[in-house]
Structure formats: structure tokens, C-alpha cells
């Protein structure tokens, strides 16, 4: 790069006043500040340079850019020279009649038979340029083959078709070199090796791009499922206009033309239907053969079983707890019942004692002749009054000990001769 | 199709009166795209009619009958506070501008289907967002892809607040801003001023960018030093613009109409007639840039009277002659303020729709000597800035510039530094306004029969242009008129060689670091003899 030499200067002779050696006179005028616009190809180099060191030079960013540009140019150059083409041009191909363009393999004509539908527009343009350089009629004429432009016409036709996106699709749809076979359902071997390329090949027809890949054994389940989902909803642009039969002599009348058109339409629809069916079969078959699906099924089963087992275990546990609880409840009830019984017994015993004591009291009353004066026979009224008092005591005292105390008190008082008074005292205390 | 990692970037010139969208096409070149109406530029108009909202030329077309509901000039209100003068200027045509909490807002009336009137208040920000959303949609529909970012051009004189407002509006319109670049920088980029830095003199250029838009003219002096662009100075004048030139035509045609019918449409009572005439005059003006005569016809201009007139280019040039003066003054001022003379301006480049006018171009060209290149060849002039933005977007996409690189102040040389050949002549090696650090190497030949290389390094100052006769003499001698004469001697060096002939060349490297120290190294490659001088800073 000539950046270092912007222009040439011829020096003038040294004036008489010139010093013999280097002499420094004065410093440069103080720099000003300007706004540097961040546009253009060089700015980035300058900026990065500035931030790196204060000692760089203006030329450095130019150099950096030059290197960058040179590298880029080298890249393009090598891409241009990349002459991997040189596919053999078969005798048969070279002698094709341009009129039979429907039979010709457009990719082969442009030397792209390996790339086929994978060829980019750039590849096609390059291939075309190469072929034209080799087969241009002017060149043929120079070699003495005047009017030999058959293959050139084939090249132009191939270029016309492959650069027109619609025509290219029509050709790709029925490209005879691309197999439309689907693998045998019982084919043995690695599933991914068999089906991977097939799906990749069929993926070219998809309206939706990118097309998910088949993947490998360890592909995530969600991915595999979305793969099959995609293929079951496959939206293909494949069409079959290329196979249309044409009104060869072109002279047919309108009815003929219509008839051919109708027939073509029907055939196209039929082809399309068959193609859709083919894809469907392929996907069905792949799904069936996919070892991953089997794996997922197995996983599902284990999962399901695991779930079931877990559920059963849970149920069992629940039943156990329930049983235990019931038993505990039963035990508690029994204990309570026993308790109640005991209490009842005690109560009955107490009651019995009380009755016994009451009876003893009654006997005491009776034996002490109802506390009338000693030796005297109690009159009916006295007996009645005493009985009344007795009843009052019995009704008044329910506590066994108190009753015993009352009885012993009365007994003692009776022995002392004033039983009636004690009875009255007790009644009064009630 | 800014290809890198599949990002789609566009360039956008968002102007006061028109906006232009440019994309990067398959060949990686800028390409201006058409909007839904099939036009390359979208007028910056928003109109409300009934409950409908119109943008671009649809809005502009109904301006005649729907002025009070048409918003225009909203770009220049961005980031500005309300003031009465501002409101009067902005609301002079189109929708009224009123104060809302210190912000100027446009007031328009929409009418719903039921006939209900609603007053809609839109700030400049709101209007810009609506407008940008529309541009964004246009571009996305054209490309059929989502847009990942845009480079926008703004005038050099935009303040930080105005730039912030533009960014805010873009953000609200979901249009990520990759970079805001100065309009003259975008133009310089499109004119490829700094691209071929390897080419001899092309490395350094001093370009005057004359941008005459619809609403005003900007004159900027752009220094191109080693591929770096610095905006040295800029002047804005609102007096010269597409609109002002339309005004000249309107005045002329109004006079003719008065002669024909006796009706004076400029008497202030015929606002609608004036708008009609302005619309027609704009078309006439455009036609005049291409053809020598152009008609102007308005049906029912005033009181049911039609107007038919023609004008030829010469007539228009005479009418508009004086109208260019403010522009020429601005050109002179910018050059003088930058410390240059017209002779040092290597290129004058035009952009903006109104710069198409031949007379305007030739008037500007007359200010410069013949050595200055006058350029307007990069395509439609009103699309230059948008295209420049797209070029910049392409560079960003390629990764040549980081996203959102900001313009930055850098130290630049205040005077040119070069070799003094005589007391009257200095050859500038490092140009004035070269960003530091700067370095440049030149090859010098020795004077015939000499074995000593005497190098006098000096700062220079521009030489006032000589009159034409002298210039012709210089040309006859095939020698350039010296652009600079030495003003301050910096250093003298002598390189003694053992032998020298006509092919001997001494390489002299000039280097000024950011520490402002000048280093000069002179080397004779064959013998390897070398001397060095360092001029320290004061």
C-alpha cells in the first residue's frame, strides 16, 4: 500500500543561513479540539488504537485496515479460484438437443451435480460463468466449429431455470437424480443412518425452514416429539408442473389445449396426493422404527409403573394407619366401658352400703322403740312422727360416712337416753 | 441485507420536511427504498381527518384543505421547551402549538364516526413516534424481515437534549438506534471521501458539505484526514431552503395571477390559495431542475379562477438569485472560521433536494478555484444522507465499527506541518486538523547535484488566493500554486549522504504523538543513513 508515500517533493538547496547540523527552533502550536465523527472504516482502528496507547501513529490504523482489507480480498480471491468444479462433461450431455431441455439435468450442465438442491445462487452464477467461458459459441467458432452452439443453449436454459426461484423449485420437485425412495420398513441397520439422509433430503421441500433434523439416539425427547410433529404437519412446496405434457406441435386448437391442461391439472393433483401419501408413510414408518420412540415408551412404562406402585404403596400405608387408628379407638372405648363398669359397680356398692346403713338406721329406730321414753311403748303417732324424721334423715343424707356418723351419733345419744334430741339435731343440721 | 449474523440494519434520514429510508442491498450497497405510496421520500407530515390518521404524502396532499389538523415540523420541536416564539414559528402553518407543562404540543381535532369531536394533543415526541412507527413498518414490509437497528442522521447543531429526544422517540417506536451520526459525516461517507485512503492525495481531503433541505441549509466543513472525519465547522441558515425557493416562485406566480385576474392571493386573506399555489410551485421548482421550462397550473386558485403559468429556468435563476446569498455567506464564514481559504477546500459536495438547482450549485462553485472538485454525482441528492446512514449501518453490520460509537472530541493539529521549500512555499505533510497521534511519511528527492538533504520543518499558514492570471501561469508551468507559506520554523535538519543521484530518495517521517511532541526521522534507505530530530512540546 502506498499510504506511506502520499506525494513526492523535491527539496531545494540549503540556504546560506542553514546550520550544519540538526537544530530545533520551536514547538508546534498547541493542538485544538475537534469532534471526530464516528463514521467510516478507519474510525474503529483509530479509536481502539487511541485507547490502547498514546504512542501510536495515524498510519497504524490505516495499516491495520489495509491488512484487514487484504485478508478479505485474499479470501474472496481464493473462493473465486476454488475450482472444485471440473466435473466430467459426458459425451451424451454435450450432444443433447437443446429442445429436449426437459430431459436435461440442469445441475450437471452447470457442473453442480454434487451440490444439486444445496447449490446456492452464488454457486449457480459461478458455475454458469465457468461453463460459458468454456462453451461460448464465439470460442467454438474460433476453434473452427461454427454453429456449434447446442450445448451453450443447454447452459443458458439450465441457468435460466436454476436462477428463477419458481422454475428451480419446479425442477427440484422432480429432479430425477434425487431419489424419492423411502426406506424399506423392515430395513436392517442403524435407524439414524437410514432415515437421517432421507429426512434431510425431503426437508428441502419444506415451506417452513429450518427443518428439524432427525438427531441421534440421545436427542431430547421434546426435540424428537417436535420433529415428528413437524413432519406430520409437513408443508411442502413440491409441485409437478415440470412433468406437464405439452402441446408438442403447438398447433392444436383450443379444445385440445384445454383437454391437455385439464389432464395436466389432474395429473399434478394426483402426483401431489401421492407425494403427500409418500411423506406420510415415511413419517409413520420412521415413527414406528425409531428406537427412541421405543425407548420413550419403555421410559413411560417404567414411569407409569412407578407411579402405580407408588400409589399402591400409599394406599397400603393409608389402610394401615386407618386400621391402627380404629384399633386404638376400640381399645379406648373398651377401657372406657370397663371404667364405667367399675364406676357403676362402685356406685352400686356405695348405694348398697347406703341402703344397708339406712336399713341399720331403720333397725336402730325400731330397736330403740322410736326413742320414746325407756320402757314405754311408742304410740302410733309417735311411731309416725319418728318414721317421718327417719325418712327426713334418709332423704337428707346421701353420703355414707355422714349417715354412719349420724347413726353412731344417734346410737350414742340413745344410749345416753336422749336419742330423739340427737335425731332432731341432725334433722336441724340438714 | 446487512448480512452479519443475520441482523437487518437500515439507514434513516429523518428530516424536518422529508425522511428517507435506505437499506443495504445484496451487493452490500446502500439502496433507497420506496414507501407504500411508491415514493422514495416520505414527507414529515401527519394529518388527522375524521378519525383517520394520515402520514407522508397522503397527509401533505390534504394540507391545503386540512391545515389546522396537519402536524409538520415536529422534528425540530423535539427536546425543546415551550416558548411563545417557538410556538408561533412552529404553528405558523399546520396545527396549532400550545403549551402543556412547558412542552410544546400540537393540538388537532379528530371527529369520530358519530360526529363527536375530540381534541387530541400530541407532543413532538408523540408525533415523532407515530411517524417513526410508520417508517419502521414501511421498511419492514419492504424487506419482509424484522429490523434490528437503524443509523440515523441528525444535524450537527442538534443539542444533546435533541439527540436524547430522537433516541427516546426511536426507542418508543421500537426502532433500536445503532448510531446517531452527523448529517455531513453521512454525506461524506456516501461521497466516499475517506474510503480510498491509500490513494495519493485522497488520503487527506477538506470537503465542504452543502446540504440544502426543505426547511433550511447547512454548510459544514469536514476534514478527512487519513480516513477520519472531523466536522471542523458548520453553519445553519433557515433563509435558504426548498421552502424559501418555493416562496420565490409563489411570489412570482401570485404577481402573474394578480395581473391576470386582479386578485392578490398574498393579501393575507387567501391562506388556502397560497397553500395551493405553494404545492404547485414546489412541483414547478423540481421540474425546473430537470427541464428549462416548467408549467405551474392551479385549478380554482382563488374565487373560482384558474391559474396557468410557465416559467423558464433563467427567469427563476434571476428571481432566486438574491435568495442564495445567505448560503454563500455561510459558505465563506464556515471556511474562514475553520482557518482555511477556499483554495484549500478539495471538494464541495452537495446533498439535500434543493441542492439540485443548477444555479445554486454554480453559485457555490464560483467561490472556489478550479482545483476544487464540485461533486453531486452520487445519485439523488435528497437521498444522499439516508444512503450514507445505510453505508454506516453496513459497516456496523460488518463489525468495522462498534454499535453506537459516539462522536468524540480529539486533539487535532492547529496548523499544518510540512517542509519549507522556500520562504514563500511550504509543502504540508501533516494537514491542519489531523487528529493526534498523527504520522505521515514522504519521499523527497535531493536538489540536482547535491549530496546534502536540507530539511526545514515548519508550520504553515494558508496563502491568499492569487488572481486568475497568475493561476493560469502556474498551470502553464505545470506547477501547483503553493497553498501554504511557512509561518513558524520548527526545526532544521541536514542529512549528509555519501553519494546521490537523481533516483536517490530520502524518506522523511513526521510523527506527532498525543504528547504533542513532533518527531522527524529522515532515512536514506540504500545507505541506511538516518537522522532524527525531536521537537518537544513547550
UniProtKB/TrEMBL annotation, chain A:
It is found in: Cytoplasm. Keywords: Chaperone, Cytoplasm. One of its GO terms (biological process) is regulation of translational fidelity. InterPro entries: DnaJ_domain, DnaJ_domain_CS, J_dom_sf, RAC_head, RAC_head_sf, ZUO1-like_ZHD, Zuotin/DnaJC2. Residues 252-264, 293-303, 310-334 have a biased composition (Basic and acidic residues). This is DnaJ-domain-containing protein. GO terms for cellular component: cytosol. Residues 69-79 have a biased composition (Low complexity). Residues 105-175 form the J domain. Residues 68-96, 248-277, 293-353 are annotated as: Disordered. Its main location: cytoplasm. One of its GO terms (molecular function) is Hsp70 protein binding. Residues 80-95 have a biased composition (Acidic residues).
From TrEMBL, chain B:
Keywords: ATP-binding, Nucleotide-binding. The keyword Nucleotide-binding applies. It comes from the Eukaryota. Pfam families: HSP70 (PF00012). Residues 467-476 have a biased composition (Acidic residues). One of its GO terms (cellular component) is nucleus. The keyword ATP-binding applies. InterPro entries: ATPase_NBD, HSP70_peptide-bd_sf, Hsp_70_fam. One of its GO terms (molecular function) is ATP-dependent protein folding chaperone. Residues 458-484 are annotated as: Disordered. This is HSP70-domain-containing protein.
